[in-house]
Specification:
alpha+beta, two-stranded antiparallel ribbon, 5 strands, globular
Length: 103
Amino acid sequence: GEVARAWPLLTAALGPRWPAEFLGWAAGRQPAGAVCDGWDFGRALEAAGTLPPGGRLALAARDVAWAYDGTALPRRRRVPAVRRAGRTVVVQVAGRVWAFGAG
């Protein structure tokens, strides 16, 4: 529930698959907190090629706004960042995030 609240767009993108897929991924893992667990889960789905477009956009938006290496706590980015999410380009400049293109 906490991860779903921290990652509503990822949850919505997976729809009814969300509970089973997340619980399967999380089984046997030590919790790292809702934000980090959702981030790691999204990255795992992306690496497997099973992350839906809405999830890619949510992950890209979080990646440009925050720096997270999978181990240390996320921290706000202070420099501009760009990330692709399918045909959409997500950009962060001066703390603002914009998405350009079509999902």
